[in-house]
Amino acid sequence: MAVASDVRPPRVISEQRRDADRIALGDTATLEDSPALLQHLRERAPGQTFALGTAIHPLTTIPLGLAIDAAILAVNGRALKIAHLRYSSFSMERIIATTRPLRAVARVAELGAHHIECVVEVWEDEHLVCKARIGLCQVRDGRAALLAHLYTFDGDTSQPTA
After folding, report:
1. Which 8-state DSSP code applies to residue 106?
2. How many beta carbons lie within 10 A of that of residue 5, not counting itself?
3. DSSP-derived secondary structure letter, 47
4. Domain range list for the chain
5. Is the pLDDT of residue 159 over 50?
6. Which long-range contacts (CB under 8 A, 24 or more apart) does 125-131 make?
7. Could you read off the pLDDT of 96-129 as tens digits, one per residue?
8. What's the CA gap between 146 and 148, in Å, rounded?
9. DSSP letter (8 states) at residue 49
10. How far is Cα 83 from Cα 70, in angstroms, rounded to an integer?
11. Which of 38, 37, 35, 26 lies closest to 106, judged by CA?
């Protein structure tokens, strides 16, 4: 049984970027998360007959959340302030266990005017459990900001003209 104190942020396994200060198609990141949070959310609430995470569907939201975090890491989102989820689509390919770590692999697949899209796969051991497309944006004045100045194409680090 996990307790809240066992829960830690996901561990960075790898990051591969063409340029440290810009975003390029194909940039990738891999995160791994222990089962502690999932186990904690599946515990019974004190004095209740339901699990702590009943309303948030942890068997789905834990893999999807890890996919979002991996996408943010792939675009260097914390440093570049691109950490807002603009949209997502996903499919759960297999039910997850509550005892094994999950690994999310994200790859930058599209560079849009106001968003960056990553394709992400979440794995449990050798089993694919979730496939997702995660659209991220930077928010300024309550709106998605233009991002082209943060992109690099074919090794060119100058600002794109398109």
Report:
1. E
2. 8
3. T
4. 4-150
5. no
6. 125/100, 127/94, 128/93, 128/94, 129/63, 129/92, 129/93, 129/94, 129/95, 129/96, 129/102, 130/63, 130/64, 130/67, 130/90, 130/91, 130/92, 130/93, 131/90, 131/91, 131/93
7. 998 999 999 999 999 999 999 999 999 999 999 9
8. 6
9. S
10. 11
11. 26
H or E segment at 40?
helix 36-41
Q: Where are the beta strands (DSSP E) in 49-101?
A: 84-92
Checking if the pLDDT of 160 tops 50, the result is no
Residues facing residue 44 across a β-bridge: 51
What pTM, to 2 d.p., does this model score?
0.89
Quickly tell me which residue has 């999950």 as its tokens: 102
Asked if CATH classification 3.10.129.10 holds for the domain at 4-150, the reply, yes or no, is yes
CB 147 within 8 A of CB 113: yes
Considering only CA atoms, which of 43, 27, 23, 45 is closest in space to residue 35? 43
Angle at 6 between CA 4 and CA 10, to 5 degrees: 105
* Amino acid at position 28, single letter: T
Is 71's pLDDT higher than 50?
yes
